[in-house]
Amino acid sequence: MKFTRYCRSLLSTPAMAVERYGKSHQSGADIAMVDLEDSVPPARKEEARRLAEEFFALPSAKLARSAVRINTLSGPDGLRDLIAVTRYRVKPDLVLIPMAESPRDIEIAAGALAADCPQTEFLAVVETPLGIEHAPGIAAAGHRLRGLVFGSADYAFAVGARLSWEALAHARARVVNSARAAGVEAMDAPFFEVADLAGLRHEAGLARDFGFSGKIAVHPRQLALINEVFSPDEELLARARRVVAAGLANGRSVTVVDGVMVGMPFFEASQRLIEQFDPPRPDEPSRPDEPSRPDGAAHSPDHSQDHSPDHPQGHAPADAPTHLTEK
User: Fold this and answer.
1) Taking residues 12-21, what's their average pLDDT?
2) Are 327 and 128 in contact (CB under 8 A)?
3) Residue from 234, 177, 167 nearest 210 by CA
4) Axis crossing angle, helix 45-57 with helix 76-87, rounded to the nearest 10
5) Where are the alpha helices (DSSP H) in the chain?
6) Distance of alpha carbon 155 from alpha carbon 141, whole angstroms
7) Cβ 18 vs Cβ 291: under 8 Å
8) Which of 56, 109, 175, 185 is 20 to 30 A away from residue 139, measured at CA?
9) 169-181 and 197-210 are packed helices; what angle lies between their axes, rounded to 10 degrees?
10) How confident is the model at residue 281 (pLDDT cuts 50, 70, 90)?
11) What pTM did the predictor assign?
């Protein structure tokens, strides 16, 4: 299993719901996203683009990775969204590209943001049959693409499938394999039953075991559980420390830890796990079984310390379900 703090969880806030912006950043989600797509009626798209700028300028925006979901690039609103983003005084960390169906969607976004938002990264939402077929190419469409997001509801509707794990297993597997082959992350679709936390835990566990990095939340109350499922527990961290210690002791050659043969991939994966989820505190000396990260070791950047129907008019109660990354 691969664990990362980059995208264990994502929470979306409709652009019109300005009063919920601060709560989104403070929710505990790895990614706090403002939505310009489905939660905004066509007549209010321009107003939403204007309001959304404040989402990134709030002081609380530094508590999570900030994102915006634009409209599909097959229509004019998606292009207008990109132009608006280039003019924001504070740029988003991430742009979610919905209905991605070819590498060209990523190339268009990259070209539009190249000059004004050079640090902004992308997540591509794969939620159509064509998108699933082209997932390998989409996942490999440039260094600014950091992951694929599976959109189960749109995909199930398009192919006439049930919205169940078994019915969508093939599509999920293709998303994960395409993402991992390209060296990027994969996020699973939401679990829509807000009150069923046991069901959420079960499906999140399946997604984790499938290879997904995280899962979309439809409500803030789902976030703690999602983050827990997509984080290593103490037993796994303890084993990672033992693997790292064994690697140090034998020069990183093949050895046996807890009765299991381990080699270089295990050492590197264990080291990354410790770096992200079990680092020494500033006032704590390095553990004797944990070296400093070796030069050149792979490491995903962690900016976590750096920074249902919707209610498009912005009058939803504070605990109302937030908008999904899919329709």
Assistant:
1) 96
2) no
3) 177
4) 30
5) 21-25, 45-57, 76-87, 103-113, 129-133, 135-139, 152-159, 169-181, 197-210, 223-229, 234-249, 264-277
6) 21
7) no
8) 56
9) 50
10) low
11) 0.80
pLDDT tens digits, residue range 115-155? 999 999 999 999 999 999 999 999 999 999 999 999 999 99
Structure tokens at 257: 């830890």
Secondary-structure breakdown of the chain: helix, strand, coil percentages, each rounded to the nearest 5: 40, 15, 45
Asked if residue 104 lies in contact with residue 130, where contact means CB atoms within 8 angstroms, the answer is no
The tens digit of pLDDT for each residue in 283-316 reads 554 443 433 333 333 333 344 333 333 333 333 3
DSSP H or E stretch at residue 112:
helix 103-113
For residue 283, count CB atoms less than 10 angstroms from its CB and return exposed for 0-12, middle for 13-18, buried for 19 or more: exposed
Is there a contact between 292 and 266 (Cβ–Cβ < 8 Å)?
no
Q: What is the pLDDT of residue 282?
A: 55
Place of tokens 């008019």: 313
Nearest-5° Cα angle at 277, 123 to 144: 20
